[in-house]
Amino acid sequence: MNIVSVESSVVSLPFDMGGPYCRFAGKLWDRLEILLVRVETEDGLVGWGEAFGHASIPATRAALDTIVAPLAIGKDASDILALTREVLHSTHLLGRNGNFVYAWSGIEIALWDLLGKRAGMPVYRLLGGSRHRELEAYSSLLAYGVAEIAARNTLAAADAGYRYIKLHETTREALLHSQRAVQGRGVQIMLDVNCPWDVPTALEMARSMRDDGMYWLEEPVWPPEDADGLARVRECGIPIAAGENVAGVHGFKALIQAGAIDIAQPSVTKLGGIGEAMKVAQLCAAHGLRVVPHSPYFGPGFIATLHIAAALPQAPLVEVLWMDMQANPFAPYVHARGGKLQVPQGPGLGCDPDPDVLARYRVGEVHCITGQEVAA
Ligand SMILES: [Mg+2]
């Protein structure tokens, strides 16, 4: 069945982050936004996807509406891998890691949803899994910049049942405060610093925290594509996680060849969708590396991550941002209970958005790209 329309819309959800709101790419981050992608085929079947996301939504949406969606209209919705090759080749001069690939990721996820609906099977089964219906989540705290607030939220996340908790802080003080807050409870703490340091500084920081027992250190080096620099930091002995900011499977290949990572973090709404994330998982399996997906998402990108994790034999941890949302059109699957997530069992992603929640929290216009616009 051919694709007849691609719609984009934005859902904006109020949330409480357990501390003062922070800034993201220079903008105040006080609403949780999802860039929803709806793909319809000629027989009226609908699939849902999510494209990255957050502060980049206006740019990703422009790439989707003007270039990427028109390339997909009229194409066979089930020809996912070949269509990925075609669309990414058509847009490669516009950027191999950024809004065009993010936009394609949103459509690609929707195509897997369509494929599963047509086959009457959940996506994780299409990907070759069947045993994991429940997954362990890790709680990904937000950036508070204050060690006491990080520790307070660490304790709250442990009380909510999480056994793995990640901080978005850049100080050893924050790490130690949080570890102390949950001492003796068997909770593992990870530290995600988001690429703040040059290599000498990252080495100094890693050496100072070498014996602190953190579960992993994430993205210590600026820029994220400095695989050799990251490999030098890894020699300190702390497990290194990275990958949310590299381009596709070949970005991971470069990290792996440099000996830069212990844990690969493919991000389904950024790197090209479910097919590309599975390629990364296969590459990592061939090199004996762990995969723990990056998923600070609250829509189909999160649900797609659940299916990817459920399809993998190791059933990796799934990242869940630590926050309270007023509502979410993809509840209950975006919420962990007792540190566990349920994998939807319906066909496709198994989780269409709740229309009432969509109607209430959608902002702005729905953009619909059809064959008519493409012909014009
Ligand atoms: Mg990260």
Automatic annotation (TrEMBL):
GO terms for biological process: amino acid catabolic process; carbohydrate catabolic process. Keywords: Magnesium, Metal-binding. The keyword Nucleotide-binding does not apply. The keyword NAD does not apply. Its cofactor is Mg(2+). It comes from the Bacteria. SUPFAM superfamilies: Enolase C-terminal domain-like, Enolase N-terminal domain-like. Pfam families: MR_MLE_C, MR_MLE_N. Residues 147-239 form the Mandelate racemase/muconate lactonizing enzyme C-terminal domain. InterPro entries: Enolase-like_C_sf, Enolase-like_N, Enolase_C-like, Mandel_Rmase/mucon_lact_enz_CS, Mandelate_racemase_C, Mandelate_racemase_N_dom, RHMD-like. GO terms for molecular function: hydro-lyase activity; magnesium ion binding. Signal peptide: none annotated. This is L-alanine-DL-glutamate epimerase. It comes from Pollutimonas bauzanensis.
